Amino acid sequence: MKVRVEIQNGIDEDEAVIYCREEGDEVRNLRRLIMEQGAPGADIVFYQENREYYFPLSDVLFFETEGETVYAHTEDDLYRVKYRLYELE
């Protein structure tokens, strides 16, 4: 596995992106370790298109449903979650 760190001035928030052929145990463990350091307590995966996002639950303003889908609203965006409202409660 290669590791590369790029320093970029002028960004609002640090972001870690993992490029992989498949999500095996090594990648899952790496993701878990990063999330434990960067966003303690973030155990919900948020989705937009084919991407997964992880951020603190405190960034979520509210959850809503549209048909069978549950969405998390943040100040700037909308994310799909794979939980039912009763599970989020």
Give your account of this protein's structure.
With 89 residues, the protein is of the alpha+beta class. It has two helices and five strands; from the N terminus they run αβββββα. The strands form two sheets. A three-stranded antiparallel beta sheet has the order 3-4-5, with no helix packed on it. It has a two-stranded antiparallel ribbon with strand order 1-2. It is globular, with a radius of gyration of 15 Å.
Topology:
Elements: H1 25-38, E1 46-48, E2 51-53, E3 62-66, E4 69-73, E5 78-81, H2 85-88
Antiparallel strand pairs: 1-2, 3-4, 4-5
Provide keyphrases for this structure.
89 residues; alpha+beta; globular
Q: What best-fitting shape do the alpha-carbon axes yield?
A: globular
Output the structural class. Answer: alpha+beta
Q: Largest sheet, described in full?
A: 3 strands, antiparallel
Share of helical residues: 10-25%
* Overall strand count: 5
Strand content: 15-25%
- Order of strands in the sheet with the most strands? 3-4-5
Order of helices and strands: HEEEEEH
- Give the number of helices: 2
